[in-house]
Amino acid sequence: MIRTRTVFSALVVVLAVSGFPATESGRPGNLATAGVEYSALNCRKHTAVITDFGAVGDGKTSNTKAFREAISKLGQRAADGGSQLVIPQGKWLTGSFNLTSHFTLFIQKGATILASQDESEWPVVAPLPSYGRGRDAPGPRFSSLIFGTNLTDVVITGNNGTIDGQGKYWWVKYRKGEFKLTRPYMIEVLFSDNVQISDITLIDSPSWNVHPVYCKNVIVKGLTILAPIDSPNTDGIDPDSCTNTLIEDCYVVSGDDCIAVKSGWDQYGIKVGIPTQQLSIRRLTCISPDSAGVALGSEMSGGIRDVRIEDSTMINTQSGIRIKTAIGRGGYVKDIFARRIMMKTMKYVFWMSGAYNQHPDEHFDPKALPEITNINYRDMMADNVTISARLDGIEKDQFTGICISNVNISLSPNPKKLQWNCTDVAGVTSRVSPPACSLLPEKGSPVDCKFPTDKIPIESIVMKKCSV
Q1: What is the pTM for the complete model shown?
Q2: How would DSSP label each residue in 278-318?
Q3: Which residues are catalytic?
Q4: Is residue 238 scored above 50 in pLDDT?
């Protein structure tokens, strides 16, 4: 008890010196989470609560100014052990706000960050250089709800607190064609190093949920992501031109791909030339009747390589793992490894599309052909499947080095007669049922497709035990 009082007394002094308010109890604001432990890349020396900055958790009062002021002040402590901002129980309405380095945003259980539907609270930002335009419309785009660029050591976590994007407003307006700007994403971090997003629930994002771009050393862990299965473009997690990324233990119900791996769009992505590489996806549970469990592309012009997908479950999902590309993309998708995937009620188990012809503009290079090679799938089971595989390469640009082994597919009561529809692909299969197409012949002796025995560096990171 003496030690606890000493810690609280020291915290009061720190808060007084730094200009943050503190209660008489010695805790900042109404810190109902005191004593809660969590895992993070780094712990913080300073703590404040959003109520310390005048925020009101009634779900009606705009707290945009409070969030921006809180992070601006806490950012001053980046060089002095960093800081964390606690969001306590309540509904905290806010527009877009920017993160800072050496900073943790902790969302308490029972707390909801509620996205504003007032467009004036969403700044307009430039399109990403590897896209050349907004994804929904030419030109700029709305900033994400939680946004950051050129950051080091930033954590968004909680003990299952919630971020609610109130997406219906944006979906209805988008479907009516009333936006001249691209809709905001829920969380987007650019040009940053050591990023953690973990242990929170994301509901009804206006568009993509989690979008790290041009980042290194990223952990996305323990997320629950929920959106109606007919909601437009509500991708779950989109690592984009990122190196050394771990995505694990996530549950996604989405109107689009549960995970979409990207690296830029046509000539813009080719020019920027930053690949997504060293990506590990494990223990994903996905439901998305109109899209993929894991999509590679379609924006993959900077390249995608060294992706490992394992120990995942996909239920009532259009396809398991899908490669999406087109003439004009350039780039590559290579060194892809997947194993131990369970699937139930699928339209396709395997799907590769070489004619995904969505382009940012008419200036793409028709000679920019993608390279799709060294694709390895093994140890999978699928039940209630309509079509085992649709593999469409590109004429005079075959998808090569495809290996599929030890895959057992049980068909639905009304399956398609042609189970393996293959064009412009080359590779082998081993112990696959139903038997594959002639372009993927059965290997004479049983083989197991490759899966790396090493780890990507981020998998060896030891998280620290922190508290609020």
Answers
A1: 0.93
A2: EEEEEEEEEE-TTSEEEEE-SSBTT-EEEEEEEEEEEEEES
A3: 256
A4: yes
